[in-house]
Amino acid sequence: MEMMRKIALVPAYNPDRKMLNVVRDLKDNGYTVVLVNDGSDSEFADLFAAAGRADVILRHEKNRGKGMALKTGLCWIEKHCEAPYTVVTVDADGQHLIDDTENVTFAARQHPSTLIIGSRHLKKGAPFRSKSGNFITRFFLNTLTPVKIYDTQSGLRGFSHDLVPVLKEIEGERYEYEMQMLIDVDRMGIPIREVKIQAVYIENNSTSHFRTIADSKRLYKVIFKNAGKRKQEYSLSEI
Fold first, then answer.
1. 133-153 residue pLDDT tens
2. Neighbour tally for 17: CB within 10 Å
3. How many other CB atoms sit within 10 Å of the CB of residue 231?
4. Which residue has the higher pLDDT, 143 or 113?
5. Using CA atoms, how far apart are residues 182 and 83, in angstroms rounded to an integer?
6. In 10 A of CB 232, how many CB atoms?
7. 5-238 has which fold?
8. How far, rounded to the nearest angstrom, does the alpha carbon of residue 193 sit from its chain's CA centroid?
9. Alpha helix locations (H) across the chain?
């Protein structure tokens, strides 16, 4: 039996050379790689040119945010890729190990029509900003909404092709898109499962483009906006 196609969606903004290793590892493990250049500065053009093993490189003329980069990739996948397939979203900074990416992909295949989250259980030595931010966000999300997720900010997520039309319509332009995704998917009655992955922080997570104040405000705005709202049941055929 032919293996189901694996598609890796990689959003990137002003990346370093670790992005090339991410693309290489994904290609070496049989993924179709959709790389989205989210309006990176001109000085990074050579780096994207060096990522020639990617199957397609999409580009925003200006930085629009991670959420928009993911939705641009999802729209391309929906239009150009024939089902069935499995999609996994992978950050470009090298913090998602290929073994963990494979495990999330496998889980998405085993549990179709389910959102799979690569869940980091932060241990001693994790950057304080990441550990405290994840704890606070998890507390508010789990307390104020029906969503019960440990790693609310993981960018390593997998899903089957039938969720692509749903996920590309979710509101959000930047990091808050991934939070809104959790809330909307849960409200629609789509299952969410977590797969434990390694927490990798390279150079104390200094390459992250997450803006502690501005982006945190966006995350909490999404949570408080949805506080207390009831779950609504949908079938995928209705979406």
1. 677 888 878 887 888 888 888
2. 10
3. 11
4. 113
5. 24
6. 10
7. Spore Coat Polysaccharide Biosynthesis Protein SpsA; Chain A (3.90.550)
8. 14
9. 18-28, 45-50, 66-80, 98-110, 128-144, 164-167, 176-187, 212-225
